[in-house]
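Protocol step 4 of 6.
Sequence for Flavin-dependent thymidylate synthase (Mesobaculum littorinae) entered exactly as in the expression construct, tag removed. Do not edit the line below.
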Amino acid sequence: MTLTPEQQAEIEAQRARTQPTFRATAPGIEAHLYRAQPVLDHGFVRVVDYMGDDAAIVQAARVSYGAGTKHVSNDEGLIRYLMRHWHSTPFEMCEIKLHVKLPVFVARQWIRHRTANVNEYSARYSILDREFYVPAPDALAAQSTVNNQGRGEVLQGEEAERVLRWLRDDAMQAYDHYEEMLSQEGQQGLARELARMNLPASVYTQWYWKTDLHNLFHFLRLRADAHAQYEIRVYADAIAAMVRDWVPAAYAAFEDYRMGGATLSSRALDCIRRMLAGEEVTQENSGMSKGEWREFEAVLHP
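Step 5 output, structure tokens:
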């Protein structure tokens, strides 16, 4: 991870500055405020601001004032009820703003989650840093033979070295040309907004990303999943650790019902009832397609 001296000084200044407040604070996320959590080779995630905590979810659900119930177990039970029955609005009362540094190709996956407020570093006004994502050797995998979206075996030996060399050399050459195209002494140069188009998708960008807890949970359910692409999953894992400290009761319910739970169709439930009754159920007599049956078996036998 690379933080500029200016960014590091800003972080230290923000952490040194404290002031009294009447707003609710969450000690778990306060510990993360402004600190940059390293991700990949040059990336990071850091919490810039937040609003709300577990109590804010409970308060919104009861539409009450003050702290609400004094029984923590009752609050946790209510949060679990809300999660279990897909009552999403109370979770929207909590918000978080993150500063993220990430490769452009990861950002293009990430931005598909359109339920956030985003402000990205502008390469029209500023010059991008010479920083590119180069996978670690154990993340350098071939195309999966069974999944068009997934990875197969890790590349080995000379082939791995050849691919890594191309990734580094191509990125460096593209940046060299990017620099040469920009305005320099005695040269008019190309506009920054045009010169950037030659850079590879592995170049790093930065943005501020603000979202509410309901939509953040949806992001984490998809991107912290084992099937998600590794490069976005490690960001989701880092964020998940922060959310666990921020709203422990809500995160525990999310982990139980969303990450660890499963949604079954009426046809799948019927198959389970038949199995419990002692009937032998197969894909052929289940009424499911081969793909549905494969996913159903994965739920029964993870």
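Step 6, annotate. The first helix runs from residue 5 to 16.
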